[in-house]
């Protein structure tokens, strides 16, 4: 700076020397040339320093780009080991990348033992333990009565009843009808002269035997002695006799009387069980008896099925991408976009199938935080009046909230409940996570 000032002064003096009024104070030509050389040296030094700084800056930028590329490549290549679906169950979610989740559900008749979801952690290991699908032991509650033997089956049970008992749970006594008459000759004569017109599917002749002068008349199983004629057996309407009696019903759904017996029928979507009295749901999803497209997921329900397709929500100020068939996550928000940061971080979708008039209260679903970041978790129920009429959300421990059914539901109906989990740090919101639970309630209570 001093050299440049001197040069400027020297140049001014040289110019002003053309005018005598300025005197002899201007520097000589040699001094000016010397000053110019000093300025050139000064500029060259600054230029060299500037170029060196540029080279250093470029080098640092290249290093940052290289590091970012390595981190991106590492993130792209960082995957956890492949997880298999549990036996008698399914795995939801195909991505095994860092930060992604997979979910597990069991087939009908099996219950999940272990975590419902597992997360690919930074150590490239899965959180939690591999769950298993355990057969539900329907015989654990000893449902067979009056000495019956319970046989556990997939999603159902059957009872082998002791002699003299019948019904889905051996609750109905088998009736035995007979009549005793002392006038053997009149009974035998009447039986011999029974008109053919009185016989048929609903009418049978009785079987009489004489023991020590006394006649005993009995009927075939399913028939009873007519109230007017001891020689005539009429069909027993088992459906009427055991419809609402103290011994219970013969059939779980519909009883059809037949000559000498009865049969049970079930509504569409159900099959009659091996005992001939109960109904079991047909799994249209497992047996491919459904019309769901390849883009849809088949959800088996009691008596039917539902085709569902998860679509990520469209919310102002934020965009979402599907990371698994049942989960949508928010794309990163700009640093200065508060509206985006206040939207939910993720949406998870779960579907439940239940029977009508399910007893309450009972836990229907649990939501847990796998890796809490803040100091507080808050759980809340979102939705309208219908959801709040049947559901509530309670905390079961510090990291888990549970969706509770608080009143029985008469089907058929579809109910939806949104469970919100908020993560807070000193009362400041860090994140929101929405779990959307859809419950399909069947028409029947079986």
Automatic annotation (TrEMBL):
UniProt signal peptide: 1-23
Keywords: Coiled coil, Disulfide bond, EGF-like domain, Extracellular matrix, Glycoprotein, Repeat, Secreted, Signal, Sushi
Subcellular location: Secreted, Extracellular space, Extracellular matrix
EGF-like domain ranges (all copies): 135-171, 235-280
Superkingdom of source: Eukaryota
Coiled coil feature spans: 47-74
Pfam family, one: cEGF
Main location: secreted
Record keyword Nucleotide-binding present: no
Alphabetical list of CDD domains matching this protein: CCP (cd00033), EGF_CA (cd00054)
Keyword Signal found: yes
InterPro entries: cEGF (IPR026823), EGF (IPR000742), EGF-like_Ca-bd_dom (IPR001881), EGF-type_Asp/Asn_hydroxyl_site (IPR000152), EGF_Ca-bd_CS (IPR018097), Fibulin_C (IPR055088), Sushi/SCR/CCP_sf (IPR035976), Sushi_SCR_CCP_dom (IPR000436)
Start and end residues of each Sushi domain: 78-135
Disulfide bond positions: 106-133, 161-170
One Gene Ontology molecular-function label: calcium ion binding
Family recorded in the similarity comment: Belongs to the fibulin family.
Protein name from the UniProt record: Fibulin-7
